Amino acid sequence: MFRLLGILFTVLLAIATAIVVWPQFFHLEQTYPFAQLVSVRGLVLGGFLIVVVLALLLLFARPLRGFAASVLIVALLGAGATALIGASRGFGATALPEKTESSVRVLTWNTAGEAVSADVIAQRILDQGADVVALPETTEEVGERIAIMLREQGHPMWVHHVQFRPDVQDGPQSWQTTVLVAPDLGEYSVIESAKDGTSNTGSVPSVVLMPIDGEGPTIVAVHAVAPRMEEMQQWQSDLQWIADQCPQGDFILAGDFNATIDHMAGLGVEGGDIGYCRDVAARTGNGVTGTWPSSLPTLAGAPIDHVMASQNWTPTGSVVLDDAGGSDHRALVVQLEPAG
Hints:
This protein has 340 residues and is α+β, with helices and mostly antiparallel strands. It is 32% helix and 19% strand. It has a six-stranded mixed beta sheet, with helices on one face. A six-stranded mixed beta sheet has the order 5-6-7-8-10-9.
């Protein structure tokens, strides 16, 4: 009887391991609770290693050796697969290449409203030489203060903004998203459907910027709702909307996607991770570096803040900044070069 129970447990453990390691094979990557588990691969790896240690200890008990050996094999396979996936995406590059005349640097940072001051954000932009800055949960007023500080430092940027429910006085700052764009990239404007919410993420706003003269990339500052149990359907809808913002053409998407590239498995087209866009961090050594929450080490966090670029751009570097400045998100900075 005990042997049968041991076999049944091992089979169930093997199935659970396969689902946790690669839920997209079972089409469960956007299903609760597997969506939450796969977002923290570092913690999953740690969990497998704990099971490995426990199984090794059980090997000393002669009656349990067969059971312990089977559990050990499953846990080692799970840990090995998780580590290989992490290694292929990158556990943490720490520097950007030198900026060239054609480089475009993109910074995304969910500032958690007033948790990060305007002067800290402005200094971070200056330090990183950012040309495009996506700031979910940052108000237009803060964005304008940042722009004034940058102009005084010889780094002018245009400010763009979308707010849900502007009629609600003192509404949550998560209803606002601000974008700054360097004049060298050209003049941009927010498309009307993003402003009025007829085409946008559902609960928190994204910003779609089009170049006025038609030259240059379309820029989308992304903010998707978090995948809480009661918000799963809206979250799935937000991810589909984001995928639709990167058809064929010249696009840069940046922001708080509240999703890892595992969650986007069914949304990529022709080698893209979401739509035709490719995740820059995963192609430059930072695909597993957690950006949220900033209270945890990066390898224990979830890489949910992204910069995605169409094939018009070649990713050349990325870095996740350690100092979150009081936000629950770390900033991500990437460097892109025009392809070809």
